[in-house]
């Protein structure tokens, strides 16, 4: 008989809900959403618009929205999630174990501390050390994190950089279980030729032209401005750049393009989940030039690879250690315009080589799937 697992998460997330749906087919789970149901259709400050995901996030698994009593409700700060009845609600479910996504909220930390020693407490987070510098503040933070992770029994780590983070803050090898960060590989690899051709035609991009794609929030940590500057240094006339998304840097980027009379640079607004596979498939090279802090993984890289595209990332993108290599793309030093430019020049020399790298990317990402993640959690919880 499989064990009952209580899962604690802030709100429905497009990268977590499919995992819960698959887990529910294997075992008895219940997800407790702590931020309250106001997060269902929330204004996303990064995208600067109200976001309502167009894939099902609340089907095929048991869940409950806990009452959030915080004065300033939200998952953007520690005191934004306070659930006075959380422990009573979880106890009523009578779980054999508990899995908590993220600790940095009043309720989540309280739940961890309450159940420690009573039932196994598992943890899921994707933090890493790539942003860290030596400072008194980070020294104090390190002391806090070592205390926090004493409250858990096991962490399901997402990749190499995340594992190093957990080890630094006190977890032993026997407390770490690999459960790969993942997206819906099948959805992003489903053939969308008709739609992707229309996207290129709408942007006046010829079949033989090379299209570089940036997709995500147009915000400082992702450094789209650096990509724009590097693109300006390319001399080939058959290379295009497409920014897909919205954010606080949107007007700055568009103004630069207009004022400097730049060509072959295109913009599309935020595209929802069902539209994104065609967007990735329309490009030849995906670039995530983040400088951080806080680009903990970069799941857009998974999406591009699942769509069969070559990838170029900075060394501040958490996934680069696991996903990016010379066979499927390249990595450059963050904030280094010269390095990014040289990598772009090298990768855009030949469309045929990009296609080969894209095939390699597709093959590599098959081991980073929801199914692998779910199997890792299921097997460990029910070991």
From TrEMBL:
| Residue span(s) of domain Glycosyl transferase family | 198-355
Q: Name one GO molecular function term.
A: glycosyltransferase activity
* The keyword Glycosyltransferase appears for this protein: no
Recorded protein name is Glycosyltransferase family 4 protein
InterPro entries from the entry? Glyco_trans_1, Glycosyltransferase_grp1
Which CDD domains does this UniProt record tie to the protein? GT4_PimA-like
Transmembrane parts of this sequence: none
Q: Which PANTHER family match?
A: SULFOQUINOVOSYL TRANSFERASE SQD2
Q: Which UniProt keywords apply?
A: Transferase
């Amino acid at each position: 008989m499989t064990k009952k697992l209580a899962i604690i998460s802030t709100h429905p997330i497009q990268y977590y809900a499919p995992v819960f749906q698959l887990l529910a087919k294997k075992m008895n789970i219940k997800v407790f959403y702590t931020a309250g149901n106001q997060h269902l259709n929330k204004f996303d400050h990064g995208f600067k618009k109200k976001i309502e995901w167009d894939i099902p996030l609340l089907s095929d698994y048991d869940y409950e929205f806990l009452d959030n009593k915080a004065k300033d409700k939200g998952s953007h700060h520690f005191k934004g999630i306070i659930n006075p009845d959380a422990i009573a609600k979880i106890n009523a479910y009578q779980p054999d174990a508990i899995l908590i996504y993220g600790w940095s909220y009043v309720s989540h930390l309280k739940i961890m501390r309450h159940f420690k020693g009573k039932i196994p407490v598992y943890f899921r987070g994707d933090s890493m050390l790539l942003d860290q510098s030596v400072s008194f503040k980070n020294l104090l933070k390190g002391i806090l994190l070592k205390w926090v992770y004493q409250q858990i029994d096991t962490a399901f780590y997402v990749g190499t950089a995340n594992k190093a983070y957990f080890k630094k803050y006190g977890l032993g090898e026997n407390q770490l279980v690999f459960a790969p960060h993942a997206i819906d590989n099948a959805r992003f690899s489903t053939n969308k030729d008709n739609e992707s051709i229309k996207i290129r035609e709408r942007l006046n991009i010829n079949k033989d032209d090379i299209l570089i794609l940036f997709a995500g929030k147009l915000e400082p940590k992702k450094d789209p401005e650096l990509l724009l500057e590097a693109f300006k240094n390319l001399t080939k006339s058959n290379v295009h750049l497409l920014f897909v998304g919205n954010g606080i840097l949107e007007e700055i980027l568009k103004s630069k393009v207009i004022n400097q009379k730049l060509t072959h640079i295109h913009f599309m607004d935020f595209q929802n989940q069902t539209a994104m596979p065609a967007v990735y498939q329309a490009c030849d090279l995906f670039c995530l030039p983040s400088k951080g802090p806080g680009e903990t993984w970069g799941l857009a890289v998974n999406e591009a690879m699942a769509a069969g595209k070559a990838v170029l990332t900075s060394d501040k993108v958490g996934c680069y250690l696991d996903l990016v290599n010379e066979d499927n793309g390249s990595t450059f030093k963050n904030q280094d315009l010269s390095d990014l430019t040289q990598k772009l020049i090298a990768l855009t020399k030949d469309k045929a080589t990009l296609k080969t790298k894209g095939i390699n990317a597709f093959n590599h990402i098959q081991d980073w799937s929801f199914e692998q993640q779910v199997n890792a959690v299921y097997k460990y919880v029910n070991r």
